[in-house]
Amino acid sequence: TMPKEPAVLHQNILDTTAAILACGIDPKKCFLFRQSLVPEHAELAWILGCLTNVPRLLRLPQWKMKRASQNSEGTVGLLTYPVLQAADILLYKSTRVPVGEDQVLHLELAQDIAQHFNKKYGEFFPVPKAILSEL
Do residues 43 and 84 both lie within one domain? Predict the structure, then answer.
């Protein structure tokens, strides 16, 4: 949610890819792709953002904490990031999502958005459930 230098961003992409492969992910058995190359993520985020009210986003603790660290301003990207996360989940019709405790509220937002969308337009998105790890 903060601007990055293009060279740093490119290196971060390479480093993250290397870390994923080092963890044992086999690209012959799963798809690895750069999310930013899939325009449907941003397109669905826009649609879902039109169904999400601002007061709900303002209540999320991550917004409050990060906004405080950004001199009480915060950016639109920071405010709407949970909607992008919901789009990332719902785009693939995910039913189970591994999350840490700090992301449970964002997953609940994705659940609410899916239910709202389904109520308005008919059953389309499964309502994803959290998989919480003890670690």
Answer: yes
Both 62 and 105 in a single domain?
Answer: yes
| Cα angle, residue 17 at apex, residues 102 and 133 outer, rounded to 5° | 30
Is residue 6 over pLDDT 90?
A: yes
Q: What is the pTM of this model?
A: 0.85
What are the respective helix, strand and coil percentages of the chain, to the nearest 5?
A: 60, 5, 35
- Terminal CA-CA length for the chain: 26
Tens of pLDDT, residues 55-107: 999 988 888 777 777 666 778 888 899 999 999 999 999 999 999 888 899 99
Which residue segment(s) compose the domain that 6 sits in? 1-32
One domain for residues 64 and 113: yes
**3-class SS of residue 74:** coil
Q: Is residue 129 classed as helix, strand or coil in its secondary structure? A: strand
Q: Which residues contact 117 (CB under 8 A, 6 or more apart)?
A: 48, 51, 90, 124, 125
My answer on whether 5 and 66 are in the same domain is: no
